Amino acid sequence: MDLFLSTIGWLLLVVCLALVLFGVAMALGSQSRQAGVYFALWWVTGAAAASGIVVRDPVTLAVGGTCFLVAGLAFVFEARRMRSETSRRVRERRNIRASERASERTTAENVRRNHRRRAS
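User: That's the sequence. What structure does it adopt?
Assistant: Structure tokens below.
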């Protein structure tokens, strides 16, 4: 049983550390920087819980697991906030483009109207 738990703990630890590195790689990109930081921090706490399994320490496992759950909730709420900010920015860009097109159209219409007035 001890070998089985140690093996599971080591596998979880390796997976958690790989996901931390993935989060760091995400954080290096400009579009996913903030999400990558949260993702990496979330899996650091998962690595703490996995280390509790490796060393067979129930307190480390409990603290790491609790931190993992709290960090996961923070990651979910932050991801929702980031998505809403992104959609708001996209809407603002669309509104700006639409108003620019409307002003261009108005300018073109004014030029045509002025041209007609001069010709008559």
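Helices lie at 2-28, 33-54, 58-119.
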